[in-house]
Amino acid sequence: MFNIIDKNISTNRAFGIFLGLLSFAYIPFIFDRIYFIDDITRSIKGYFGWIGLGRPLTELIAIVLTINTKTLADITPLPQLLSIAALLAASMLLVRNISDRITLGTILISLTAVINPLVFSNMLYRFDSLSMSLSILFPIIAWDIYLKGNRLFTFLLLVATLSLYQPAISIFPILIVLSFILSKEKNRKKITLVLHSTIITTLSCIVYYFTIIKTTMDKGEQRGDISISNGGIVHKFSEALTNSSHVVFDSYGNLSTLCISLLTLFFLANVVLKVKGQVISKDKYRYIIATALLLTPILLIILSVGVNLILSNSYFPPRVLFPISLIIFTLLASSYGDNKITNTIVSVIAVILIYSSISVIYVTSSALTHQKNYDQFILNLVTENLNKMDTNKNIFIYGETDDAVAVKISKREFSILKHVKNNFYDMTFSQSLVNYGVANVKFSGDARKTSLELKDLTCKNLMKTEISQPQYSIFTNEKDILVYLGKVNCK
Hints:
Blueprint: H1 2-6, H2 11-26, H3 28-31, H4 39-45, H5 56-66, H6 78-97, H7 104-114, H8 117-123, H9 129-147, H10 151-164, H11 171-182, H12 187-216, H13 232-252, H14 254-279, H15 286-305, H16 323-335, H17 340-387, E1 394-399, H18 405-411, H19 426-435, H20 445-459, E2 464-468, E3 472-476, E4 480-485
Parallel strand pairs: 1-4
Antiparallel strand pairs: 2-3, 3-4
Helix pairs in contact: 2-6, 2-7, 6-7, 6-9, 7-16, 7-17, 9-10, 9-11, 10-12, 11-12, 11-15, 11-16, 13-15, 14-15, 14-16, 14-17
């Protein structure tokens, strides 16, 4: 088995393995055709809207793909197919930079960075999956050319990364940490590697903030605004680390979490050995390097939280935590070396992570399809009911649909479903009703307040019950209709 793991593999064969496994892992996106969260609204209204979120390159890509500057058309599965191509390119760059030769072990390690539940959560988005995949590829290209000495294009690529999807900026420093650990260069060059990369990353963030965020971000959109309030940076970091850890462990599952824990021990042991080697060396920079090595675990923990540590509305669904998959890749790659036994153990862990990730992808895709069918059934019934009622009344939506039975079953073992919920709620349901030709459907910030007021009236028995079903209820008064999704809860 040792020989199989460490056997040299040609670039062409590695390309074929990456393409085959990536296609196999993400094939549900080609067939399931899921509208995820705001995809429904985009498909109905045809709006772009990414410039106002500080993501102008995402908007540009959508315009180029649809050959249209005014209306966003649904061209699924083209973005998903191109996303697979982007992840394929990323995996080829990763495998080429972590070792002098390509082996089955390094291929498996590289695959963990592109096949995992966190990247999958980005691939779910019908319209901007490509920009999210490119936001993974760009910092990897930046890392590749930075190691070759090209500073200017590294800087430009990092600004482009932020303009695609802000959380991806963490990927570059994560990979610099890996290069620092793996580097066989003299200590002085290692210090230069870290210092220059830190300066470039900082400059790219500053330039992006003042040229993109401050000029294009919508005033009502605070995702790109910086804040360390609410208890200070220590409290915010502690809260962010706790939240992100729960989400990541839920996403990967119990077996993978166990493997990641074992991998962390391998990594820490490897760091200790490298520190020991530095301390007994005669290099004049040995204590600087030894200290930096000791700080790498702390730095990776900070990078696991990423830009959400300083953003005003920090939140931690799997789709913003995808740089953590590159941290797991770093733990694997830094433990892979000359020891065949260690290489085999690391490769087996990589196999388990890839296998469990594919399982999570398929189960989640199936669950989302079941939920889509269940929600479609409710949408059809509500549409039929409303068409028989007074269409001159304003229609408001409250609540969200319950989980389909198949989803409830899957949720017992796959906790990621708690974080990638796609149930109809007031915004998506109201837009779907409009798409079905139902008149006078209201949704906005003010409409949401009205929906809550109407919900309170139903609990006080001040609205007439027209329909009462376990899946939904419809209430009316003299001028309004309230569609209450799910079971009525007045507690």
